[in-house]
Task: inverse folding
């Protein structure tokens, strides 16, 4: 590992420490080095607050002059709630800027670099680029498509079952795996289930870790049959948004809204339009979404090629039974050549269970 990679890795670690706090903004870290000494370090903490470079510059003070700044994402060039970081770097008198990756927004990419180069600053781009891109996979999709990055999460036995044929599902996986899921919920903007999950399990859909952040709870409900006494309607632990179809009950809609639930009516006559649902979520600044649905909801997302990432917790158990539900149902494929394959696969052990992470490759 050369010096550039060493300092960029420090910046990446600093950025990752803020995971779950910055959305819809990206994770960004920065390190300033002068005479082989770290004189400033910073991370973007929250949308609307100073960017990582500004925190690092404030820490460095006069020691930034003539130094090198490492930043995990191209310094911004626009005037938003905070000033352009590229201009702040120029004013600080830094002589070199090392950037992991350009801004993914094609309308912005390269503009921050141009400001720096026009000021006579040496710029190096591409150090630890792959790590930076993966770290900001949520932002990279959201900023370009304005729809959330969709993570499908499920827990299943080795034969793919999510419950027995009697609907008993507590618990498929271990306490360690369930705790891991709560940390995942803490990092996303919203969590989605179908109304049948609410009726059957009455879940809270919250993050049960100290100082955890509860995601917005999204319920797909074509006819608004969600019980008014369900936890997601009454517990006030997090916002609940219900998405319905054109066949919704006007009376039930008013009852839900009186209880503080937001109801969004999609254009489909009989089913919730999930493509429109994702569009609405993006318009409301929801940049990431976990789908924790049953087999039919999961199949709908996968069949429409809407899943960006699958996280599957596999318990070393077998349930069996043709009537026991699986985590992907629907009609299924006709030929093996049509099966969805996965790339960038990661396998790890969580307690006695196995955690699979993969990215679907749609043909």
Result:
């Amino acid at each position: 590992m050369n010096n550039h990679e060493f300092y960029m890795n420090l910046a990446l670690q600093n950025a990752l420490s803020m995971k779950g706090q910055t959305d819809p903004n990206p994770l960004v870290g920065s390190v300033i080095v002068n005479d082989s000494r770290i004189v400033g370090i910073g991370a973007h903490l929250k949308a609307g607050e100073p960017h990582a470079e500004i925190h690092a510059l404030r820490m460095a003070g006069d020691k930034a002059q003539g130094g090198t700044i490492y930043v995990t994402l191209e310094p911004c060039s626009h005037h938003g709630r905070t000033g352009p970081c590229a201009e702040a770097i120029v004013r600080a008198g830094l002589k070199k800027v090392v950037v992991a990756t350009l801004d993914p927004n094609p309308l912005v990419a390269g503009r921050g670099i141009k400001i720096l180069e026009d000021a006579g600053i040496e710029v190096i781009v591409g150090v630890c680029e792959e790590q930076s891109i993966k770290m900001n996979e949520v932002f990279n999709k959201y900023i370009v498509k304005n729809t959330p990055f969709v993570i499908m999460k499920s827990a299943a036995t080795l034969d793919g079952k999510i419950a027995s044929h009697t609907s008993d599902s507590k618990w498929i996986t271990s306490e360690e795996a369930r705790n891991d899921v709560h940390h995942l919920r803490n990092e996303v903007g919203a969590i989605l289930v179908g109304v049948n999950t609410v009726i059957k399990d009455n879940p809270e859909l919250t993050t049960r870790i100290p100082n955890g952040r509860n995601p917005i709870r999204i319920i797909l409900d074509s006819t608004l049959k969600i019980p008014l006494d369900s936890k997601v309607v009454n517990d006030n632990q997090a916002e609940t948004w219900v998405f319905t179809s054109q066949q919704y009950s006007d009376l039930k809609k008013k009852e839900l809204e009186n209880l503080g639930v937001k109801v969004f009516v999609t254009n489909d006559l009989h089913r919730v339009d999930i493509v429109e649902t994702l569009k609405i979520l993006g318009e409301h600044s929801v940049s990431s979404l976990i789908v924790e649905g049953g087999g039919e909801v999961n199949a709908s997302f996968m069949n429409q090629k809407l899943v960006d990432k699958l996280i599957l917790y596999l318990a070393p158990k077998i349930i069996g039974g043709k009537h026991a539900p699986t985590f992907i149902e629907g009609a299924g494929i006709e030929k093996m050549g049509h099966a969805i394959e996965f790339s960038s696969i990661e396998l790890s052990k969580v307690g006695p269970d196995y955690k699979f992470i993969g990215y679907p490759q749609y043909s």
